[in-house]
Amino acid sequence: MLFEFLIYRRTGVFDYTTFRTLGCAVTVRDALNQAMDEELERDERVFLMGEEVAQYDGAYKVSRGLWKKYGDKRIIDTPISEMGFAGIAVGSAMAGLRPICEFMTFNFSMQAIDQVINSAAKTYYMSAGLQSVPIVFRGPNGASAGVAAQHSQCFAAWYAHCPGLKVVSPWNSEDARGLLKAAIRDDNPVVFLENELMYGVPFEMSEESNSKDFVIPIGKAKIERQGTHVTLVSHSRYVGHCLDAAAVLAKEGIECEVINLRTIRPMDVDTIEGSVMKTNHLVTVEGGWPQFGVGAEICAKIMEGPAFNYLDAPVTRVTGVDIPMPYAKILEDNSVPQIKDIIFSVKKTLNV
Amino acid sequence: MRSALSFLSNALSRISGSAGAQTVSELLIDLSEYASLMTPSELTEAPPTCAASLVSPAVASQPLAEFNAQVTFDLKPCELYLLETGPAHTTQLTRKEGLQLYQTMQTLRRLELKADQLYKQKVVRGFCHLYDGQEACAAGIEAAISRSDHVITAYRAHGFTYTRGVSLKQIFTELTGRRGGVAKGKGGSMHMYAPHFYGGNGIVGAQVPLGAGIALACQYQGNQQVCVTLYGDGAANQGQVFEAFNMASLWKLPVIFVCENNRYGMGTPVERSAASTSYYTRGHFIPGIRVDGMDVLCVREATRFAADHCRAEKGPILMELQTYRYHGHSMSDPGISYRSREEILEVRSKSDPISLLRERMLSNNMASAEEFKEVDTMIRREVEEAAQFSCSDPEPPLSELCDHIYSNEPPMEVRGTHPWSKLRSIS
């Protein structure tokens, strides 16, 4: 029983009808690495800059091997100057290049947030279409393991608040590959929120994802698991938690539909609404704080749309605890949603 | 003479008669009217023949026999930092170049004074940061680079917007927020763009790393272009400026950092904000030159030197232009609470960039007073026409409110102020 549970966690593959397994699993890290490698090869305007991305092979080894292959011109180590190098990346995008700007974690992006918002996100609008900014800001977001408050914040809500940005949050390796390629090819500023705890997790990949032109459209959610009783909506690491919870709930006869948002902005409300109109119950699951968060936005959107009349219960948000992240393991474990919290919330929502 | 005196007395009575403190700008407009009446006429030329009097937008290209086609001028030497040699101490100016520079600067001057008027008439809203007094900086820099080079500046941007090729009509219409504006009314004073001109940036200092990034793109693409990245004495204390200095130097980016030191960061004089006011040395490991920013020929020569430095792949260079703004920081700042009227008048009478150039050309027999007057008249007319147009052009259509969120994207829906307001956005 426990063994089966672990297999579910590692592969994350449930929908056998849509793709076949290849027999080899790819970690999220390798999927990101391959995606960047292919895009660097495809378009010579693409380059990567950030701290330790070149000679160190990446702080989390996501850019391993790229400097050796592409050299100093395309893979650039920066000093510890987020505001400066984010601005430099944005400027280079304005002048015709297609930079990938890595933040070692998104916590450090706060140093540079003015460049992301005021220089990147708003420029196409302010110039009425004269000046576009094709840039990707990527890096790990949200909680890690034991890194405490200053290194554990989730920035999905902050960036998704702003018009002009696209905000993407992949869960598994296929997401990582397809969405990063799409982000790099997109002519707009894209905030690409990875997750450090997912880097080492292997997933089976579909055959179609083999193609060098495999892109997952930004702005489209994916139904990872079909269900009838309740809709679970999540992004990033917690999609896996939802699937695990769904597996446990299935044994009690509760069938959960699990939606992987994939993109936070622009959010695919249609998929959520369609699901809610079928299941009549909605639970959102995220790692970030509750106030003004992704779940709060989903609640508001559902209330404003046709799905509201199909709800048999108010929407439930499962979120991180509304505190700065503590260090001690027992405290940290209880600061983020656990599978039991999702199961509990589903049952409360269904009133069972 | 009589009319000049009556004008002056009118101006003075306005000054003394007003209840509150007259703003500097009103005084300046009066004075500029006065000054144009007092055009020096010590050089009484024979009435120019047809060729010379054809002062059209394409300035007279055929020098007359009685005018000097080219003169060499001595320049005030620049203070140097980390440099053995600096910009040339002399420069050659042709009659055509001189008239062109004059025309550019006078256009910038009239543009800003007209913007001042429009702002007071409330057809220009929000922020309006005027450049009059600093014309030599924009004109001199543009004269030393080519259109394929790049320029980025902060919010006092009307001057560079014009020198980079945006028409007066498009500038005024952007200021008045109409559909004919260069940014279709969506940007306003601080957000105007043109090919190889990246605005117009509202956040103090943010344009400096952007400029270094544009230079990175130049280096990456191997196109021998440079990026002129301007910032003010106020922005010179921003941390991101030093981050940009470090990376530009490390990677030898072809960027000319230009500090337009007009002595005041908003209401704060430089002595109160900077531990070191030698801005041309504050690049630390970046060579620097301190330039008389009121002398357009100095600025031009220094920029040539700087551009050569960058194109020779020696890395970035820093130019401090010592200049002055006649207006306050913006239209909401009278500009006299932190500096005296006397100071402003003194700069105006001794160092006005337009007067300096005109005097030089007149006293070296490069052009006639009448020619300058004709240029002035022509510019006044152009500016007036553009301003009239900007007041009559219709406002942007509400149907375009949500356009230009994303580039190269299929049409999408944008939420309006309430859930039933579903607006359309196209790229």
From TrEMBL, chain A:
Residues 26-201 form the Transketolase-like pyrimidine-binding domain. It comes from the Eukaryota. Its main location: mitochondrion. The pyruvate dehydrogenase complex catalyzes the overall conversion of pyruvate to acetyl-CoA and CO(2), and thereby links the glycolytic pathway to the tricarboxylic cycle. The pyruvate dehydrogenase complex catalyzes the overall conversion of pyruvate to acetyl-CoA and CO2. Keywords: Carbohydrate metabolism, Glucose metabolism, Metal-binding, Mitochondrion, Oxidoreductase, Potassium, Pyruvate, Thiamine pyrophosphate, Transit peptide. SMART domains: Transket_pyr (SM00861). The lineage of its organism: Eukaryota, Metazoa, Chordata, Craniata, Vertebrata. GO terms for biological process: glucose metabolic process; pyruvate decarboxylation to acetyl-CoA. Its cofactor is thiamine diphosphate. This is Pyruvate dehydrogenase E1 component subunit beta. It is found in: Mitochondrion. GO terms for molecular function: metal ion binding; pyruvate dehydrogenase (acetyl-transferring) activity. One of its GO terms (cellular component) is mitochondrion. It catalyses: N(6)-[(R)-lipoyl]-L-lysyl-[protein] + pyruvate + H(+) = N(6)-[(R)-S(8)-acetyldihydrolipoyl]-L-lysyl-[protein] + CO2. InterPro entries: PDHB_mito-type (IPR027110), THDP-binding (IPR029061), Transketo_C/PFOR_II (IPR009014), Transketolase-like_Pyr-bd (IPR005475), Transketolase_C (IPR033248). Heterotetramer of two PDHA1 and two PDHB subunits. The heterotetramer interacts with DLAT, and is part of the multimeric pyruvate dehydrogenase complex that contains multiple copies of pyruvate dehydrogenase (E1), dihydrolipoamide acetyltransferase (DLAT, E2) and lipoamide dehydrogenase (DLD, E3). These subunits are bound to an inner core composed of about 48 DLAT and 12 PDHX molecules. Interacts with DLAT. SUPFAM superfamilies: Thiamin diphosphate-binding fold (THDP-binding) (SSF52518), TK C-terminal domain-like (SSF52922). Its EC number is 1.2.4.1.
